[in-house]
Amino acid sequence: MLETLTYINADYPWLFAAFSFIFGAIVGSFLNVCIYRIPAERSVVFPGSTCACGEPIAWYHNIPILTWLFLRGRASCCGEKFSVRYPAIELLTGALFYASWVIHSPLIAIIGFLFIAFLICSTFIDLDYMIIPDRFSIGGMLIGVVLSILFPSLQDVEGQAIMQNIESGVHSIIGALIGSGLVYWIAVLGEIVFRKPAMGEGDVKFVGFIGAFCGWQGAVFAMFGGAFIGTLILLPVLLLGRIFGWKQGVGTGESEAAEESEEPVAFGSQVPFGPMLAVGGLVYFLGFDQYVDAYFADFVLSFFGK
Fold this sequence. Notes:
two-stranded antiparallel ribbon, single chain, mainly alpha, 306 residues, 9 helices, 68% helix
C-alpha cells in the first residue's frame, strides 16, 4: 500500500500535499477538544462539542478554520465570541502536517503526523496548566520505541530485516534515555544552583518522548536548540509584557466554542519549558536533522579521533 502511495505521490504530488493540510486541520479541530478536556479528565469523544450557552454545535458549524471565518469568530446560537486560538491551532496543525508530507517519505510523514499532534497538544496544555500529561510523554515514548522497531526508517537504520528492527529500537531507547537523563541532571543542578525547581518532571519525560522518535541527537537539540529558539521569542515578549503590564491567562474556557477565561498572573512569572522543547523537536524533525546529525558526527569524530 505504501508503495502505491509513493507512486501516486510521485505523479500527483499536489494531491496528497493538499490532503495532508486538510487532514491536519481536521486533526487540529480534535486537538482543540483534547487540549481543553484532557486536563479536566473528561472524555474527548462524548459528549460532542457544545457552545458556552450549552447548545450542541452542529457539524456544519464545526468545519475547521472556515467556520470561524464565516461566523466571524462568534457562536451561531448565541453570538458569543470564541477565541482565535481554535482556528489558529487548526491552521498550525494543517501547515505542520503539510510540511511533514513534503519533507519526508510517505511512511515517515504519516508517523510524523502522530508526533506533531502529540507535540501540539502537549504545548498548549503546558501553556494553559503548566503540566504535560503522561499520556503524551510516557505514552508517546513507548509509541516511539514500538514504531522505531516496526519501521526502522524512522531512525534511518538500514540492514538485514531482523537486525535493523532491533538496531532501530535500540536507537529509540537510547534517545529516550539520553534525552530524559540530560534534562533530569540539568534540573538537579539547576535546583542546587538556584535553590528552587528549575524544571518539572513532565519536561524530563517529554524530552524522552522526543528522543524516542528522533534519537538522541533530536533529544539534545530539542533541549538546547529549543531553549535557544524559545529564548529568542520569549525574551522580547517578556520585555514587552513588563513595559505594557500584560497578563498571562491560565486555564481555558467553559467550552470548545467559548472564549477562554483568564486567571491573571503576572506575565513571565511562570515560563513553561515544554513549548520550547516542542519547537526544538519540530525544527529537528522537519528538516534540520541533517545539519544536527552532521554536526554531532563531526564532533564525535574529532573527539575520539579518526
